[in-house]
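Q: What would this complex look like in 3D?
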Amino acid sequence: MDKKLGVYICGGCSIGDSLDLDKVSEVATKEYKVEICKTHPFLCGKEGAQLIAKDIEDGVNTVVIAACSPRAQQEIFSYDSGVVLERVNLREHVVWSHTPQDENTQMLAEDYLRMGLAKAQKVFPAEPYQEAIDKTILVVGGGISGMTSAVEAAKAGYEVCLVEKSPSLGGWMSKLYKQYPKHPPYQQLEDTGIEAKIKEVEGNPRIKVFTGAEIEKTSGAPGMFDVLVKQNGNQTSLRIGSIIQATGFRPYEANNLDHLGFGKYPDVITNFQMEELAQQGKIKRPSDGKEVESVAFIQCAGQRDENHLPYCSSFCCLTSLKQALYVTEKNTDASVYILYKDIRTPAQYEDFYKRVQEEQAVFFTKGEVEGISEGGGCLTVEVEDTLLGEKIGINADLVVLAVGIVPNSMPEEAKKATAEAESSGEKCEEAAERAADSGFYASPALQLKYRQGPELPTLKYGFPDSHFICFPYETRRTGIYSTGCVRQPEDSATCIDDATGAALKAIQCVEQSSKGMAVHPRTWDQTYPDLFMQRCTQCKRCTEECPFGMYDEDEKFNPLPNPTRCRRCAICMGSCPERIISFKDYSVDIISSMLKAVEVPEEDEEKPRVIAFLCENDAYPALDVAGINRLTYNPYVRVIPVRCLGSINIVWIADALSKGIDGIIMIGCNYGDDYQCHFIKGSELANYRMEKVQETLQRLVLESERIEVWQLSISEYDKLPKIFDDFLETIERVGPNPYKDF
Amino acid sequence: MNNRDLIKPDSNFTKEVIGLGGESLKKCFQCSTCSVVCTLSPDDKPFPRKEMLWAQWGLKDRLLGDPDIWLCHQCNDCTVHCPRDAGPGNVLAALRNYSFGHYANPAFLGKAFRNPKYLPLLLLFPVVLFLILLGATGNLTIPEGEIVFEHFMPHIILDPVFLVLTGLIFVIVAMSLSRFWRDMKKSTGSPKSSITDIISGSAISKLIEFLQHKKFYECGSSRIRMLSHMAIFYGCMSFALVTASVFIGTYTVGLELPMAQYHPLKIIANLGAIAVITGCLLIIVRRLSAGKATGNSSYLDWNLVILILIVTSLGILTEVLRLADLATAAYVLYFIHLVLVFYGIAYFPYSKLAHILYRSLAILYADSNNMGGKKTLSPKPRKIRDSEIEI
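A: Here is my prediction, written as structure tokens for the whole assembly.
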């Protein structure tokens, strides 16, 4: 494709008053020999937009707009997919944050245009990858979440396959005697209604149900998964578009709670066993079948305890309130004690808590259970730190432990060291060295034939890793969405909402994949990584570092990309020491060209130059907000937006420093357990890589202070000017880059 | 496990407290807002949070021996601020009402008194008693001539009856209070509890505090209630003073009844009556315009205020009828007046009026054991550190 550039410089929003636009134009016309370069006082107006549209009709295929931030006026400055668009941010990053009519501001604007032009010359339109066509949705798990997802997806017109391990649908809900109220006024216990849901699933012609079935193997990628289902010894092969994992939970192992008497006394049972007792009519204690007259519920039996389950399981308080009513409704003379850490009944469930409080024979106290003993024909629970202000003892016929839940993704025992990476043929010893979130720790559910492991990578407590704040359904395997209690502890009402959301995400995935677009978060992006395989050294860094397991490997360790698994974060591009991974609009070469386009003044001019790599997701918009608020900072910083900090290739550092750039600052999202990185590992990887960059600095005989890595969230825009100015002070102290004059 | 620590909730007790006006006590979820807003509650072991929990659990022994329920002057700040509408003020009031019947013997009278069903029966007793007395002395007819109540119901008959009654009540009350004292000792385990210790300690200052209605004044949210209580209290005191003076006067200096309207004792009694009636009306209006700040009005609450109002009004009315020379009406009303006075005295140990003794005793007890310690008012809110917030 022959490039025909058109450069359009806007004079509006005080750009024209602050800059000498004729001199800016000369960068395009004289330095870059661009034939079409127009200045307009109001480019986003009707006339300005027509000006550009006319030129595109006349053959311009690469448009460079030097005006406001690329995040502004996107509807007006948007063109056919065949037209390359590059936005140069003269408004937020130049005139709104720097002194008008100033030499340094002018230089900044001109540099930005140079960088934009350098980039525009090398960017080509995306050629979308459109192989993925299958839109069938696979739901794994036939509990309330899985069934809801299946029904919702089917209602939206999609074919669904539902695989359930046990012989019948229904999950834990079908084991309940009753459920706590889910409807206003939240006063009466309700039937679970699970039979109706099962009928709805079984009666839906779009849903194909496999009960008593397990997944043997899942290979492929979104839009083109091949799933092998084993049922009654028969194997069925399914072509699947996207997957919802709703494999649920299991109760916490009560045998670990011997300090609460479980296993020691037959009349100490779990809340799950209590459901079974209630279903048998009168509640009789297991030891001698006597109808119970007093029941003590111990809340947080293991939950919120570092030695057991460090988290709240969300519905155990409500379950005990419900079971308290089982007791009082079946025996009006019975007393119930509820011993809690805190009663947690969020939202309207508070009304149900109030309802149970009104029960004459239900007694509540906060407290820590010290121990349980037996004697005199009943159990005695000793409670410390009660609201009564003292240690108390309570006699009860039956003690119910409100145990919490463990996601089924959590392996029953740590098979870490022996996990075998079948997909890559690695040996056990190698697998044992994998990171804790590799997916090898999870219990089998999907049996993915992915190079990075057979299951969804987990984060804390064995739950699948996801961006809990912003994109809760997304997992680290594109096109596979976790929902229900495997995702986080939640009750059936939340499961239903959650599963509906997951169905929507699964639908979005198949639709986006069929258009060759990224699923999330770069939903407009039709580029995908292109590997120049002749130069690949099989170092495996891309296949290991991709947070989404996009690459598989062949037997010689060559990376095998699966474009529909790709989120387009370009972390692989940042990882590749051979620099062979490129996107049509984002590559090592493109950014290097931008770096080279920056004019570096001679040392005696005393105008230092700093390159700032800013994450497009948080830091870059934060700098826009700083501009909108007219916060000012020094004019020596040149900002280059990056898809993710993880996409920064170390070669750029070397390129910049050897060109005479005085310092490099990188600003990305927070990482760690509560990470905010949109690509999960990018920010962390960047930080890790920059620790290693010291070798490069040593080779160049440069000071380590010349490189800084920062974490910033979008709301911290006000900190940016200080970060930049402090960095410039550091650079002044260290002195100019000795490579300047070479 | 020590047996003493075993908790055995008594849900029947809870039910009774609910019936006596503490109907919302089960709603409490122990946030302690009540204890924080209360201006009388001390820093150490503050009320009424703990009383709410005890009431929910039906821990009767702790509650009845708890002096704190008497330290409350029921301004109802707690009830107004309760986020759960549990009405702590009402619960304490109900507990106090329960205490009267609980401590006074015979127990059946206590039960009967707090049940409106038995009101006619309880009234019937003095009616029959007085009719018998009148019949026995041949006074069952309306006397002729100038209206002199002495002719209808001679003091020589009335005085012994009321003297015996008062003596009996005195014994019952003494027994009740000693049981109450014993329970306070048992439930608080305070070392300093001999009566002499206490009375020699702070009785005088507490009495002055009480005469000034100082604690009432500290409950700043209901000044009008303090005024009406003061009016009734001092009005009733004037009745006591006049009655005693007349009693002594008739037997010593041969005081002639009825006294002249300008007689100082007459003037004091009439002024007292006006104060009492005004106070009662204020209270009634306040209770009728029910809001959270007023609190619930139980049968016992109405019983007392209406009794005082009727007795006093009848007193004034008979006086007026006597001056108007309407003999039949005057004698009939006088009869009813006497019946109600008898009712008030005879059932005093079971009625809300007994609070004057229980409260005084509890205040003295608490004070001598440093229980009703000062509240630190308007403490500066402490900033909660992140490490203290458990997620």
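A: To summarize the key features: Chain A has five domains: 1-125, 137-248+409-514, 252-405, 530-581, 586-742. The interface with chain B takes residues 304, 335, 343, 353-354, 357-361, 363-366, 373, 380, 382, 387-395 of chain A (CB under 8 Å).
Q: Very helpful, thank you.
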